[in-house]
Amino acid sequence: MLNRFMQSRLRGLVILALILIILPAFLGNPFHYELVTQMAIIAATVVGLNLLVGFAGQISLGHAGFFGLGAYFTGIATGTYGWSSIPALVAGAIAVGIIAWVVGRPILRLKGHYLSMATLAVGFIIAIILNNERAITGGPDGMPVPALNLFGWELSTFGQYSLFGVEISGVQAWYILASLVLLLAVWFALNLIESPIGRALRSVKGSEVAASVVGVDTARYKSLVFVISAVYASVMGSLYAHFQGFITPAVASFEFSILLITMVVLGGMGSTFGVILGAVVLKLLPQLLANFQELETVMFGLILMLTMIFMPKGLLPTLTALVAGKVRKKTGGKA
């Protein structure tokens, strides 16, 4: 029989897949498809970041730097040197993983505010390099990125494609790809969490001293999850670059790093499906508040502040606890 966690994991994946299948029925135009595709790509990024922050307890305020490196590596490799998209994406992920390992070994020895400042510095350094290396990256003006070449199939937001005999637009094809990638990212994260590596990460978050006493190599596991989360960001950055068709150093900015960590905190640290909800909410809120014009930023901040005051554990864990509490009351505490 499946244990409770595996049942919950399978149920969550099925629900997420059903939502992604049903969602196109409510998308009325290409802009909606572009928005939800961006949501899926960013949601997959924060699923990786949540492994570092939510399960290992290690903060990162410069994670957009790895996202930007993946985007620019792919953009340069495919646009300047004529690489195919998949080799460029894989090579970029490997390169970013190596950089994350080299950088992570020393800075992950730090704790608290010192670790936050170190990761922030890494993000700033990457953003400065992308801004200043005009000959390679185009500088602040950015650079164009070719359409995604997927096993000989060129995927562009402006194209028209036939899928199992059904004609779909480019944005619809991108939505399908992003949805599949998100499901794969969630599946991998859930399996990692339940593996011996995941249990080691949870012990590190609980107490590094206690974890070390029972034989957990805390430095190794912290570096490993730092690399995994960076590779997540790199792969999603590569896909984002192809999807947008144009990138600027904003993809590695401090503001984007803060947005990513806010999605994790808002959705619920340690909740894989919660951080997806956090990503959706923070991508939707600016669209919903656009009519308030100059008050948009104030209301955005107010909503976040009230959410964190009244839902400190995050949106999904709080809502789940409320529903579970009501169920227990109705069943007389037997649920």
Automatic annotation (TrEMBL):
Subcellular location: Cell inner membrane
Record GO cellular component, one term: plasma membrane
Topology of this chain in the membrane: Multi-pass membrane protein
TM region(s), chain numbering: 38-57, 64-83, 89-107, 114-130, 173-193, 224-243, 258-285, 297-316
Keywords of the record: Cell membrane, Membrane, Transmembrane, Transmembrane helix
Pfam families recorded: BPD_transp_2
Top-level taxon of the source organism: Bacteria
One GO MF term attached to the UniProt entry: branched-chain amino acid transmembrane transporter activity
Chief location: membrane
Record-given protein name: Amino acid/amide ABC transporter membrane protein 2, HAAT family
PANTHER family per record: BRANCHED AMINO ACID TRANSPORT SYSTEM PERMEASE, HIGH-AFFINITY BRANCHED-CHAIN AMINO ACID TRANSPORT SYSTEM PERMEASE
